[in-house]
Amino acid sequence: GTRVRLGDARRHALDFKGALEDARAALALDPASAYARVLEAESLRSLGRFDEAVQAASLAVAAAPEWTWARVVRAKALRFKGELKLAEADTSAPDHYSLAWRAEIRRKAGRLQEALAVITQAVAAQPTIAWFRALRGEILRGLGLDPDDPAVMAAWERATASLRAPSPPPPPRTGAVKLTAEQKQQVQQRVKQ
Protein backbone atom coordinates (compact mmCIF):
# COMPACT_ATOMS: atom_id res chain seq x y z
CA GLY A 1 0.00 0.00 0.00
CA THR A 2 0.79 3.65 0.23
CA ARG A 3 2.70 3.41 3.53
CA VAL A 4 4.99 0.72 2.12
CA ARG A 5 5.74 2.83 -0.97
CA LEU A 6 6.37 5.89 1.20
CA GLY A 7 8.56 3.83 3.53
CA ASP A 8 10.52 2.43 0.62
CA ALA A 9 11.13 5.96 -0.67
CA ARG A 10 12.24 7.04 2.80
CA ARG A 11 14.59 4.04 3.06
CA HIS A 12 16.15 4.96 -0.29
CA ALA A 13 16.57 8.51 1.05
CA LEU A 14 18.41 6.96 4.05
CA ASP A 15 15.61 7.86 6.49
CA PHE A 16 15.62 4.44 8.12
CA LYS A 17 13.67 5.47 11.22
CA GLY A 18 10.94 6.99 9.05
CA ALA A 19 10.90 3.89 6.85
CA LEU A 20 10.54 1.70 9.93
CA GLU A 21 7.61 3.84 11.13
CA ASP A 22 5.93 3.45 7.75
CA ALA A 23 6.51 -0.32 7.73
CA ARG A 24 4.98 -0.66 11.17
CA ALA A 25 2.01 1.54 10.21
CA ALA A 26 1.43 -0.70 7.18
CA LEU A 27 1.72 -3.79 9.39
CA ALA A 28 -0.90 -2.35 11.76
CA LEU A 29 -3.30 -2.38 8.79
CA ASP A 30 -2.17 -5.74 7.38
CA PRO A 31 -0.02 -7.84 9.75
CA ALA A 32 0.47 -10.52 7.07
CA SER A 33 1.95 -8.14 4.46
CA ALA A 34 5.22 -9.64 3.23
CA TYR A 35 6.11 -6.32 1.56
CA ALA A 36 5.74 -4.41 4.82
CA ARG A 37 7.77 -7.09 6.66
CA VAL A 38 10.57 -6.79 4.10
CA LEU A 39 10.57 -3.01 4.50
CA GLU A 40 10.64 -3.47 8.28
CA ALA A 41 13.55 -5.93 8.01
CA GLU A 42 15.56 -3.72 5.64
CA SER A 43 15.01 -0.69 7.88
CA LEU A 44 16.00 -2.57 11.04
CA ARG A 45 19.13 -3.94 9.33
CA SER A 46 20.08 -0.45 8.20
CA LEU A 47 19.67 0.73 11.81
CA GLY A 48 22.02 -2.03 13.00
CA ARG A 49 19.24 -3.99 14.72
CA PHE A 50 20.17 -7.30 13.13
CA ASP A 51 18.32 -9.74 15.42
CA GLU A 52 15.06 -7.88 14.86
CA ALA A 53 15.79 -7.66 11.13
CA VAL A 54 16.19 -11.45 10.94
CA GLN A 55 12.90 -11.91 12.81
CA ALA A 56 11.03 -9.52 10.52
CA ALA A 57 12.51 -11.10 7.39
CA SER A 58 11.60 -14.56 8.70
CA LEU A 59 7.99 -13.41 9.02
CA ALA A 60 8.15 -12.14 5.41
CA VAL A 61 9.47 -15.54 4.27
CA ALA A 62 6.67 -17.28 6.19
CA ALA A 63 4.09 -14.98 4.57
CA ALA A 64 5.48 -15.44 1.04
CA PRO A 65 7.74 -18.53 0.91
CA GLU A 66 8.04 -18.39 -2.88
CA TRP A 67 9.28 -14.76 -2.88
CA THR A 68 13.05 -15.05 -3.23
CA TRP A 69 13.63 -11.38 -2.33
CA ALA A 70 12.28 -12.03 1.19
CA ARG A 71 14.91 -14.76 1.57
CA VAL A 72 17.63 -12.44 0.24
CA VAL A 73 16.59 -9.78 2.78
CA ARG A 74 16.88 -12.36 5.56
CA ALA A 75 20.27 -13.44 4.17
CA LYS A 76 21.46 -9.82 4.26
CA ALA A 77 20.48 -9.51 7.94
CA LEU A 78 22.10 -12.85 8.76
CA ARG A 79 25.28 -11.81 6.91
CA PHE A 80 25.53 -8.68 9.05
CA LYS A 81 24.96 -10.79 12.17
CA GLY A 82 27.90 -12.96 11.08
CA GLU A 83 25.76 -16.06 10.54
CA LEU A 84 27.22 -16.79 7.13
CA LYS A 85 26.13 -20.42 6.71
CA LEU A 86 22.50 -19.57 7.41
CA ALA A 87 22.76 -16.51 5.18
CA GLU A 88 24.15 -18.53 2.29
CA ALA A 89 21.33 -21.06 2.58
CA ASP A 90 18.83 -18.24 1.91
CA THR A 91 20.58 -17.34 -1.35
CA SER A 92 20.15 -20.66 -3.12
CA ALA A 93 17.77 -19.32 -5.80
CA PRO A 94 19.24 -18.78 -9.28
CA ASP A 95 18.09 -15.15 -9.66
CA HIS A 96 20.76 -12.47 -10.01
CA TYR A 97 20.21 -10.86 -6.60
CA SER A 98 20.48 -14.20 -4.82
CA LEU A 99 23.66 -14.90 -6.78
CA ALA A 100 25.19 -11.54 -5.90
CA TRP A 101 24.41 -11.86 -2.20
CA ARG A 102 25.74 -15.43 -2.21
CA ALA A 103 28.96 -14.02 -3.68
CA GLU A 104 29.10 -11.34 -0.98
CA ILE A 105 28.57 -13.93 1.75
CA ARG A 106 31.31 -16.14 0.32
CA ARG A 107 33.61 -13.11 0.02
CA LYS A 108 32.95 -12.28 3.67
CA ALA A 109 33.75 -15.91 4.57
CA GLY A 110 37.08 -15.65 2.70
CA ARG A 111 36.00 -18.08 -0.04
CA LEU A 112 37.10 -15.76 -2.84
CA GLN A 113 37.35 -18.24 -5.73
CA GLU A 114 33.81 -19.45 -5.00
CA ALA A 115 32.64 -15.85 -4.65
CA LEU A 116 34.16 -14.96 -8.02
CA ALA A 117 32.41 -17.89 -9.71
CA VAL A 118 29.04 -16.76 -8.36
CA ILE A 119 29.43 -13.02 -8.98
CA THR A 120 30.48 -13.89 -12.52
CA GLN A 121 27.04 -15.43 -13.05
CA ALA A 122 25.27 -12.42 -11.51
CA VAL A 123 27.21 -9.91 -13.65
CA ALA A 124 26.57 -12.00 -16.76
CA ALA A 125 22.84 -11.98 -15.99
CA GLN A 126 22.68 -8.26 -15.16
CA PRO A 127 25.83 -6.45 -16.36
CA THR A 128 24.40 -2.97 -15.76
CA ILE A 129 23.95 -3.27 -11.98
CA ALA A 130 26.80 -1.24 -10.53
CA TRP A 131 26.89 -3.03 -7.17
CA PHE A 132 27.49 -6.37 -8.92
CA ARG A 133 30.46 -4.91 -10.82
CA ALA A 134 31.81 -3.25 -7.65
CA LEU A 135 31.57 -6.52 -5.74
CA ARG A 136 33.37 -8.28 -8.59
CA GLY A 137 36.14 -5.66 -8.25
CA GLU A 138 36.42 -6.26 -4.50
CA ILE A 139 36.66 -10.00 -5.05
CA LEU A 140 39.28 -9.61 -7.78
CA ARG A 141 41.32 -7.32 -5.51
CA GLY A 142 41.04 -9.90 -2.73
CA LEU A 143 42.51 -12.43 -5.16
CA GLY A 144 45.43 -10.09 -5.85
CA LEU A 145 44.13 -9.02 -9.27
CA ASP A 146 43.64 -5.43 -10.37
CA PRO A 147 40.12 -4.90 -11.77
CA ASP A 148 41.37 -1.69 -13.41
CA ASP A 149 43.97 -3.62 -15.41
CA PRO A 150 42.63 -3.98 -18.97
CA ALA A 151 44.35 -7.35 -19.37
CA VAL A 152 42.63 -8.72 -16.23
CA MET A 153 39.24 -7.49 -17.39
CA ALA A 154 39.74 -8.76 -20.95
CA ALA A 155 40.58 -12.21 -19.59
CA TRP A 156 37.54 -12.06 -17.32
CA GLU A 157 35.30 -11.01 -20.23
CA ARG A 158 36.58 -13.90 -22.37
CA ALA A 159 36.07 -16.36 -19.52
CA THR A 160 32.51 -15.22 -18.87
CA ALA A 161 31.26 -14.62 -22.41
CA SER A 162 29.58 -18.02 -22.52
CA LEU A 163 27.58 -17.22 -19.37
CA ARG A 164 25.74 -14.27 -20.86
CA ALA A 165 22.19 -15.10 -21.70
CA PRO A 166 21.13 -14.39 -25.25
CA SER A 167 18.95 -11.34 -25.63
CA PRO A 168 15.32 -12.21 -25.13
CA PRO A 169 12.98 -11.82 -28.09
CA PRO A 170 11.26 -8.46 -28.29
CA PRO A 171 7.98 -8.28 -26.40
CA PRO A 172 4.82 -8.74 -28.39
CA ARG A 173 3.49 -5.55 -29.85
CA THR A 174 0.57 -4.20 -27.91
CA GLY A 175 -2.35 -2.62 -29.65
CA ALA A 176 -1.66 -4.58 -32.81
CA VAL A 177 -4.56 -4.54 -35.23
CA LYS A 178 -6.07 -7.88 -36.14
CA LEU A 179 -6.80 -8.04 -39.82
CA THR A 180 -9.37 -10.18 -41.48
CA ALA A 181 -8.24 -12.50 -44.26
CA GLU A 182 -9.61 -10.05 -46.81
CA GLN A 183 -7.72 -7.12 -45.24
CA LYS A 184 -4.48 -9.16 -45.20
CA GLN A 185 -4.94 -9.91 -48.88
CA GLN A 186 -5.45 -6.21 -49.63
CA VAL A 187 -2.27 -5.29 -47.70
CA GLN A 188 -0.30 -7.97 -49.57
CA GLN A 189 -1.54 -6.63 -52.90
CA ARG A 190 -0.49 -3.08 -51.97
CA VAL A 191 2.96 -4.29 -50.92
CA LYS A 192 3.40 -6.04 -54.27
CA GLN A 193 2.60 -2.82 -56.18
Description:
The protein is mainly alpha-helical. Helices cover 70% and strands 0% of the residues. It contains eleven helices and no strands. The radius of gyration is 23 Å and the shape is flat. The termini are far apart. Residues 173-177 have low confidence and may be disordered.
* Low-pLDDT sequence parts: 173-177
| Number of DSSP strand runs | 0
Major sheet, described briefly?
A: none
Strand content: under 5%
Rg value? 23 Å
Mean pLDDT: 86
General shape: flat
Total of DSSP H or I helical runs spanning 4+ residues: 11
Span between termini: 56 Å
Strand and helix order: HHHHHHHHHHH
What labels would you give this structure?
193 residues; mainly alpha; 11 helices
Question: Brief overview, please?
Answer:
It is flat, with a radius of gyration of 23 Å. The protein has helices spanning 2-12, 16-29, 34-46, 50-63, 68-81, 84-89, 96-108, 112-125, 130-142, 150-160, 181-192. It has 193 residues and is mostly helical.
Secondary structure elements and their pairing?
Blueprint: H1 2-12, H2 16-29, H3 34-46, H4 50-63, H5 68-81, H6 84-89, H7 96-108, H8 112-125, H9 130-142, H10 150-160, H11 181-192
